[in-house]
Amino acid sequence: MAKFDIEESAVKKLAELLNETGLSEIEVRDGNKSIRIARSIHGNALITNTTEASLSELPSNNYNSPEEKNKLSSNDAITAPMVGVVYLSPEPGAENFVKLGDTVKKGDTLLLIEAMKTFNPVRASKNGKVTEILISDKLPVEFGEELMIIK
Question: If exposure means fewest CB atoms within 10 Å of the residue's CB, which of 29, 65, 97, 115 is most exposed?
Answer without folding.
Answer: 65
